[in-house]
Amino acid sequence: MPGRTGEFPLIDWGWDRQQCETYLLKRFGVHWPKSYCTFCCFPASMGSLPAHMERMRSHPDIAGEVLRLEYTAMSLNPNAKPYGRKTLLELFDPTRPRDRACLEAFERELDMPWALYHVRRLFLLSEDGRRRPVKRSTERVDLGRPHQLARRLTAISERHGVDVEHDPVYGRTRAWLRPRAEGWPMAEELFATAPARVINKQDKNFEESWDALLSGSSRTV
Fold first, then answer.
1. Which of 4, 66, 134, 137 could hold 120 in an S-S bridge, CB 3.0 to 4.6 Å?
2. For 33-79, what is each residue's pLDDT tens digit?
3. For the residues 19-30, what does the mean pLDDT come to?
4. What is the mean pLDDT of the chain?
């Protein structure tokens, strides 16, 4: 902010995390673990992934909830990998007992009502050719069990010649009506099943922008 200058004494002193933990242990006589939000993806980017995974293994019920959150997000947007090129789910090894406990907790989290969602996104340009923030619309179409919704989506998609992606392990089903193109402006549209934890939401003036782009009357917003 104008008129303010941040000061970072630990950086100025050259203290790393190990030095801080050593000081706290000596001062208070206890190990002071790093605080963090359980579902935050930044531990991976901060180089603390091993410690992050160890905490997940120590709290499998929390790990299951985080995995369900990730799985739901990626059901509606497969590009939403929070850990870069890999998902958190891929980091757990089912052959290891502690990892398996986390995966079993994840499976329990999935044992809940699911929803069929209609998802649309708009990638638009401003009048001077710059990329605008992506506009989104998410609508819950139906509720049910994963296999019921998967059968319905598959049957309807096949009747209309739309390819269907299905995850045989955890149940997600996805059908692309309008896959993402290479260049902007573009529209993306799909139906997907996921745990029923996502509310209906739509950006302002989405329908007008959607109709304008698909009709070819506008490339900008």
1. 137
2. 776 676 666 555 555 778 788 888 999 999 999 999 999 999 999 98
3. 93
4. 91
The three-state secondary structure class of 94 is coil
φ, ψ of residue 182 in degrees (nearest 5) = -85, -40
Rounded distance between C-alpha atoms, residue 183 and residue 127, angstroms: 16
What crossing angle do the helices spanning 49-58 and 60-76 adopt, rounded to 10°? 120
Burial pattern 97-124, b for ≥16 Cβ within 10 A else e, equals eebebbbebbeebbeeebbbbbbbbbbb
Residues in the chain: 221
- CA distance to 34, 47, 124, per residue, from 22 (Å): 13, 19, 51
pTM of structure: 0.84
Instruction: Give, for 46, the enclosing helix (H) or strand (E).
Output: none
Q: Which two tokens stand for residue 129?
A: 């050719």
Residues facing residue 143 across a β-bridge: 115
Task: Give the DSSP letter of residue 128.
Answer: T
Locate all alpha helices (DSSP H) within 37-77, ordered by sequence.
Answer: 42-45, 49-58, 60-76
Bridge partners of 118, per DSSP, are 139, 191
CB 63 within 8 A of CB 160: no
